[in-house]
Each structure stands twice: as structure tokens, then as C-alpha cells.
Design goal:
CATH architecture of the largest domain: Beta Barrel
Largest sheet: 7 strands, antiparallel
Number of helices: 4
Number of strands: 13
Shape: globular
Strand content: 25-35%
């Protein structure tokens, strides 16, 4: 489990297809000595299994077909900056929110705009286009993970069911310490909605399905 508080950024070295899974190799000097073979590491919000390579400041991870097709990792190129987080030990403070590292879908960065003149101290407004299937899992002031970063939804515009979007506030520390400052409009981002919102949406969907079944109608005298 993760909390969405990015510990460091890493750099993509290579993305290499093999006869099986695709291998992603990253430079992550800030995490040197802090992980072991088989440990989980969240890379842009995707939970991956760490594999050692010759350079101790690097690690690799194999991307299964599901990971390769569901997330943005397939679009990474050498030199790209990625967000990194090690799992949260049991009993540690949860500074962000519960993040599983299981990406639901990808969204698109619409804009990332400074709100004040000074780019050194300003906060930012990030607008993301959501895939329609996630619109039932977001609420204003709720949590969402964007490229592994735990963020709070400031505004949700769900009026157009085909083009839902959300806005989040980005503080200067988050802007500088994550990959956000490297992204441009149109960039794909990994999205993981809050796990409680997922269960609530699934339960609501099941309740609506039950309401329509003949068994439910007969059992309740309708």
C-alpha cells in the first residue's frame, strides 16, 4: 500500500520489449539501498516489482500486458521523469490517502496554470480530462491519485458525461518535487480513484441492477 506522497523522482533509462513482459529500467539514486529484490515500488502510481540491475542506483521492472495497455508507462521514453514511492510500512502515518497502485485508467492533462505572478512561489491549477467511466468515482474535496500523487479534487465538472473533467490545486512543493513540471497539455496521466469511491460506485451500480430484476420486483411487491 502507498499514500501518494512522492519520495523521489527517477529517470527512464530504457523500455525494452522482450519475448514476454516489457522491461522498464529506471535510474533512482535517491532510493539506493532502500529496496530489495521483489519489493514493490510505485512508478507514476503503478505498483511494480523491483528487479536489480548492475548499477545499484538503478532498478528494473517487468510490465505485464495489462500494465502496458492500461497505464501510461508504455508511452515513456528515455530521459522522462517519473514519480517514485516505496510502500508505507504498517503503523506509519498516512499523510496522503490509501493508494493501492492499481491504475483505473488514464486521463489527459488539459492545463497546468500558475495562479500568481511569481513562478517560484505560486500555486497552480491542474485540469484533467477524465475517461467517462470514472465520473461516478470523483467528488469535490475527495481524493484522487494522479501519476502517483495524492491530490484533492477542488472542482469536478461532470455536466458533460462525454467530457468530464476535474481541477486540483497544486502547491509549489508538489509542482517542483514531482514530474508535474515536466508535463505539457495533452500529456497522458495515470489515474487511481479513491478506493472507498470505487466500492461506493460498484455498490450503487449493483443496487440499480437489482432494482430492475424481476426477482427484486416480485420480492418487494411491485
Amino acid at each position: 500500500m502507498f499514500t501518494g506522497l512522492i519520495e523521489a523522482t527517477g529517470t527512464v533509462i530504457s523500455l525494452t520489449p522482450t519475448s514476454g513482459a516489457t522491461r522498464l529500467t529506471l535510474a533512482a539514486p535517491a532510493l539506493t539501498g532502500r529496496w530489495h529484490t521483489g519489493d514493490s515500488i510505485a512508478v507514476n502510481g503503478v505498483c511494480l516489482t523491483a528487479i536489480p540491475v548492475a548499477d545499484p542506483t538503478h532498478f528494473a521492472a517487468d510490465l505485464a500486458t495489462e500494465t502496458f495497455t492500461r497505464t501510461t508507462l508504455s508511452s515513456l521514453s528515455p530521459g522522462a521523469t517519473v514519480n517514485l514511492e516505496l510502500p508505507t510500512p504498517a503503523g506509519s502515518p498516512l499523510g496522503g490517502h490509501v493508494v493501492q497502485g492499481h491504475v483505473d485508467a488514464t486521463g489527459t492533462l488539459i492545463s497546468l496554470l500558475p495562479l500568481h505572478p511569481s513562478l517560484d512561489t505560486t500555486d497552480w491549477r491542474l485540469t484533467i480530462a477524465l475517461p467517462p467511466q470514472l465520473s461516478t468515482q470523483v467528488v469535490p474535496q475527495g481524493s484522487i491519485t494522479i501519476d502517483g500523487i495524492s491530490l484533492t479534487i477542488a472542482h469536478a465538472d461532470l455536466s458533460n458525461s462525454d467530457l468530464p473533467r476535474i481541477e486540483v490545486a497544486i502547491i509549489p512543493h508538489t509542482y517542483k518535487s514531482t514530474n508535474l513540471h515536466t508535463l505539457a497539455p495533452g500529456s497522458p496521466v495515470n489515474l487511481e480513484t479513491d478506493v472507498l469511491a470505487k466500492y461506493a460506485a460498484a455498490q450503487r451500480a449493483r443496487s440499480q441492477e437489482d432494482w430492475l430484476t424481476p426477482a427484486y420486483i416480485l420480492a418487494n411487491g411491485y
